[in-house]
Amino acid sequence: MVAAEYLSRSRLFRRLKSGPHGQLVELYAARLVKDGLVRHGTWRCLNLVDGLLSWIASGRWELADLDERMVERYLRHRTGNHTSRPDR
Known about the structure:
By secondary structure, the chain is mainly α.
């Protein structure tokens, strides 16, 4: 199953699309389709975005605060090496 078919059925995609960053999620999904990802790869990408957006919200940061350093901290957080807040 390719990305476009997966997205038409995905509850995760529908939830992300209807959230506060829906337009960004739709642009990202269009990129996944263009890149030709398969179902599992598309799910993994959307799951990562979902976790990142949730982590940003839980830290009371803004999407505008997102930079490479913050993404690195999030990825460490996902692997269990938690840090409390990104340097500002």
